[in-house]
């Protein structure tokens, strides 16, 4: 077992978004969704309704068909950092940066799931998911380059004749047996929001569709296990140079 | 159609929405941004109001009359401001930069003192900055004028 | 797994429930595209779009959307900001995009302008938060005043900025203005002593 199984709390974690999502087998009616959404006005004052439409394009016949596929009620805090998504077959709690730590994030999830269930009733869960999107910001070197291989262990292998890339993306699906999950890992160069920096995305999405817990207590146990495995995976995917980025920071003030 | 030129010794008032008021980080108004003097692309002249044309001899009364008149045709926010300039002062600042503006009376329905500053370049931001900093003699909150 | 962020470079779908969200700022609606369904026929393609209905939006909704998009964008760099600085910025945005003060005909804050503004702040690292204004075209204007010297920077799309400044020289007010790109703003402002507004100077930025 690696000495870095569980990531220490970093002063400046690179998490741009954390999401915990539950999916159910049977849809919740729109009326119930609307009622549930209304229960969250105190915690999430802002509400938007999103509509999913299916589009089928037949290039041969040059036609397009639209189909209503349901609504999602999105509620958000005033700073737009805490978000709740209530869909016909999914419930998701999302946190944008600054990530407040697992305890607070999980506490919000537990609170909101409890409120939702009081309206929607029992729903058989068919999927439980956890996604942490990280962005590692790296200052350009003297040559105006940012080398992802210095910060990430998930790397693109390039031939000697083409040593530099102006963009890349990688995807890997990894079995996480300890948590009965699959980890979908996306990584790649992304436009940096910071001037004079390069940025690399490390998007870790754990999905469990077998032995999905149904009781709240079991959901908590599984999420804790998934989080532990996510942290273990994250630590193996970054280098010490990346870790230094999470400590070395002079925030705008 | 020729329009009457405003006398040099008279004054114009420019309505400055809150978005174009210069404010500090705490939201305290401290001046007028140059952008407040930038006319829209589809406008022939910069809209202003002729203060003395309100018929009021007292400045505060003239300002109140101006805000009330503007409020009949548009929403005037409480934090918007009226920026006051002397006609000659305004023209002299422009002339010092080789810009010849004409400040003329263009009455509108419901706003008889409406006037325009014509031939003011839209994109000469340094001139607009000088006007905002030097031509503006004072500025008043519309909310306090309507109170 | 849902995400609220766009992955510009990562267009490949993954997992059964991947949703990648793109912001369509032309009509101010938020569009998300899910993974394309399996194709049986090469000429037929099916996909899902998630959109916030944008027809006949009220002014209040448009202003909320502008505020929300700005805050979501700020969250992308929140780890590079002091909490108090960020909270103060949000208060300024709420104040600037207040429905009660909105001037008819103005465009709401454009996301492209705000993105440039954030990058400007992180580049110049101002000694204090600027005052915020908005042009009629929805471009954010950051302004600083120190004694009698004033600097305003209008943030345009794609790192383009328009600076306007005025100060006194030998008793006379002098003004200067110009357009440049973000990378050059400190160099361009060097003759005017930008260290009274910014903690970074041109030699550091070069």
Give the SSE layout.
The complex is a heterotrimer of chains A (253), B (147) and C (206).
Chain A: E1 15-24, H1 30-38, E2 46-58, E3 63-76, E4 82-87, E5 90-96, H2 102-120, E6 125-139, E7 169-176, E8 181-190, E9 197-208, H3 216-237, H4 240-247
Antiparallel strand pairs in A: 1-5, 1-6, 2-3, 3-4, 4-5, 6-9, 7-8, 8-9
Helix pairs in contact in A: 1-2
Chain B: E1 11-16, E2 21-23, E3 29-32, E4 45-50, H1 59-71, E5 81-86, H2 87-95, E6 102-105, E7 114-118, H3 125-135, E8 136-141, H4 142-146
Antiparallel strand pairs in B: 1-4, 1-5, 2-3, 4-7, 5-8, 6-7
Helix pairs in contact in B: 2-3
Chain C: E1 19-24, E2 29-34, E3 44-51, H1 59-75, H2 83-96, H3 111-124, E4 131-134, E5 140-146, E6 149-155, E7 160-169, E8 172-181, H4 185-189, H5 202-205
Antiparallel strand pairs in C: 1-2, 2-3, 4-5, 5-6, 6-7, 7-8
Helix pairs in contact in C: 1-2, 1-3
Q: Give the strand line-up of the largest sheet of chain B.
A: 6-7-4-1-5-8
Number of helices, counting only DSSP H or I runs of 4 residues or more of chain A = 4
Main pleated-sheet profile of chain B = 6 strands, antiparallel
Query: Helical residue percent of chain A?
Result: 10-25%
Report, as a whole number of angstroms, the end-to-end distance of chain A. 40 Å
């Amino acid at each position: 077992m690696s000495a870095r199984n569980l990531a220490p709390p970093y002063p400046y974690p690179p998490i741009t978004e954390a999401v915990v999502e539950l999916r159910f087998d049977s849809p919740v009616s729109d009326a119930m969704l609307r009622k549930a959404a209304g229960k969250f006005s105190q915690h999430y004052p802002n509400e938007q309704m999103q509509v999913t439409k299916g589009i089928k394009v037949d290039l041969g016949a040059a036609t397009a068909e639209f189909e209503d596929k349901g609504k999602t009620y999105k509620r958000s805090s005033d700073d737009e950092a805490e978000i709740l998504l209530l869909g016909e077959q999914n419930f998701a709690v999302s946190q944008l940066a600054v990530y407040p730590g697992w305890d607070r994030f999980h506490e919000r999830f537990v609170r909101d799931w409890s409120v939702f269930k009081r309206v929607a009733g029992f729903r058989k869960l068919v999927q439980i998911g956890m996604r942490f999107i990280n962005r590692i910001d790296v200052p350009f070197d003297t040559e105006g380059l940012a080398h992802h291989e210095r910060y990430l262990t998930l790397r693109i292998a390039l031939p000697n004749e083409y040593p530099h890339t102006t963009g890349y993306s990688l995807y890997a699906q990894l079995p996480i047996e300890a948590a009965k999950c699959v980890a979908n890992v996306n990584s790649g160069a992304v436009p940096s929001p910071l001037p004079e920096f390069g940025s690399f995305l490390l998007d870790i999405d754990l999905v469990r569709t077998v032995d999905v817990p149904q009781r709240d207590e079991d959901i908590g146990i599984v999420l804790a296990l998934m989080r532990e495995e996510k942290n273990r995976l994250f630590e193996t995917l970054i280098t010490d140079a990346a870790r230094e980025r999470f400590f070395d920071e002079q925030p705008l003030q | 159609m020729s329009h009457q030129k405003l006398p040099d010794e008279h004054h114009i008032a420019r309505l400055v929405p809150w978005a174009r008021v210069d404010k500090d980080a705490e939201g305290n108004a401290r001046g007028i941004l140059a952008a407040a003097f930038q006319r829209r692309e589809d406008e022939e002249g910069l809209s202003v109001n002729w203060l003395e044309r309100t018929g009021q001899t007292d400045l505060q009364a003239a300002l109140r009359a101006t805000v009330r008149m503007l409020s009949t045709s548009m929403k005037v926010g409480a934090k918007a401001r009226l920026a006051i300039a002397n006609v000659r002062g305004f023209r002299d600042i422009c002339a010092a930069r080789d810009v010849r503006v004409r400040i003329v009376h263009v009455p509108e329905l419901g706003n008889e003192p409406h006037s325009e500053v014509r031939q003011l370049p839209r994109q000469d931001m340094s001139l607009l900055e000088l006007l905002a900093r030097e031509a503006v003699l004072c500025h008043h909150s519309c909310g306090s004028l309507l109170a | 797994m849902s995400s609220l962020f766009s992955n510009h470079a990562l267009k490949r779908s993954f997992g059964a429930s991947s949703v990648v969200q793109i912001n369509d700022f032309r009509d101010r609606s938020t569009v998300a595209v899910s993974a394309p369904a399996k194709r049986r026929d090469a000429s037929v393609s099916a996909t899902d779009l998630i959109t916030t209905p944008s027809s006949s939006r009220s002014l209040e909704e448009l202003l909320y959307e502008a505020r929300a998009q700005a805050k979501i964008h700020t969250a992308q760099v929140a780890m590079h900001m002091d909490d108090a600085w960020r909270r103060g910025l949000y208060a300024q945005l709420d104040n600037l995009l207040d429905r009660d003060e909105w001037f008819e005909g103005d465009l709401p804050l454009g996301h492209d302008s705000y993105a440039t503004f954030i990058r400007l702040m992180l580049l110049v690292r101002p000694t204090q938060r600027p005052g915020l204004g908005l042009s009629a075209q929805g471009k954010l204007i950051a302004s600083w005043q120190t004694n009698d010297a004033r600097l305003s920077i209008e943030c345009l799309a794609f790192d383009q900025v328009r600076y306007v400044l005025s100060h006194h020289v030998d008793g006379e007010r002098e003004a200067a203005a110009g357009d440049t790109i973000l990378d050059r703003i400190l160099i361009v402002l060097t003759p005017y002593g930008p260290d009274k507004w910014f903690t970074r100077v041109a030699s550091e930025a070069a």
